[in-house]
Design brief:
The chain is of the alpha/beta class. The chain has helices spanning 28-38, 40-43, 64-79, 137-147, 280-292, 318-322, and strands at 2-7, 49-52, 84-86, 107-109, 114-120, 123-129, 156-162, 164-165, 169-170, 175-176, 183-184, 195-199, 205-209, 215-222, 239-246, 254-262, 268-274, 299-305, 330-337, 340-343. It has a 6-stranded mixed beta sheet. A 6-stranded mixed beta sheet has the order 5-6-7-12-14-13.
Amino acid sequence: MLRILLVADTHLGFDLPARPRSDRLRRGPDFFARFRDALEPARRGEVDLVVHGGDLLFRSRVPASLVAAALEPLLELADRGVPVVLVPGNHERSALPCPLLAAHDHLHVLDRPRTVRLRLAGLDVAVSGFPCERDDIRARFPQLLAATGWQAPADVHLLCMHQTVEGASVGPTGFVFRGGPDVLPAGSIPRGFAAVLAGHIHRHQVLTRDLAGRRLAAPVVYPGSTERTSFAERFEPKGFVVLEIEPSPTGEGRLAGLAFHELPARPMAVVEVAVAGLGPDALARRLGELLGGLPRNAVVQLRCRGRLEAGSESTLRVGALRGLHPPEMLVSVRLASPDGLVDRPDEAGAGGMDEVLVLG
Ligand SMILES: [Mn+2]
């Protein structure tokens, strides 16, 4: 039995500025802590292989020191002889920055379409994959797959990629990806793989059927991200996956077991507050009540509905807000405008994420 630890979308470097412009609490260290938590079973020697499904880093232009810090937990495992396979994701612009930092006999970066052949748990294991294709995975998948040379004989075949597969779902309303050049049709995945190990979709899920209900040639496993990177992920548990693969008579291996391990990611909450008619003190009391009912370490977005009373603006300033919640809570504010909700101007710079990040 082959045991694989699959982790992805760790987005290291998120909210971790080299030169912070304010002294507010940062989420950056959480991302590193969750990554280390996720690798714990590998450090304990409980798995034969670790696969990182991509988006190790939160973006592509990063200092070498961040790349080194991000690779360190993986290199530690490689030093112990645990093989690690890493897929460059879209946030790496499909190539790991400072690739020489990843040079290690047991760390395999899928920096081009290729197949890594490993002898694990008494089995010949072929791990195939390619870096994130950002333009047209629908059109390019057949060539990328062929270029990996995946079809040479092995006991177990695995496919690793950082892509959206048709049928994957995201967000609080469960949006389902159905088409487009950046979505891989589920039927494109050929027979011959025990499983597809994938990153890019931040919600943990396992796809086994296409949109028409037909069984996929191989299950597509998304471990999801290890910390919440936007408020759209607020209802999702975060974690990593351990897969058990056994040899099969047909020669590609078979997924025999899969366990999702939840990590203590920061809870997130979106809180609406009706501000009309509340003077500064009344608003402070109301916010204190609302924030007091949330987990102490929550990341909170306050959405103010209605017209803010003259003078109540001061209650929403960073310094004043800090007095209303536990020190480990992160609070951002959105105010209503005639066009809908707007970010308070001093909270700009959320690091390329789709929601405003934090302050307070
Ligand atoms: Mn990602």
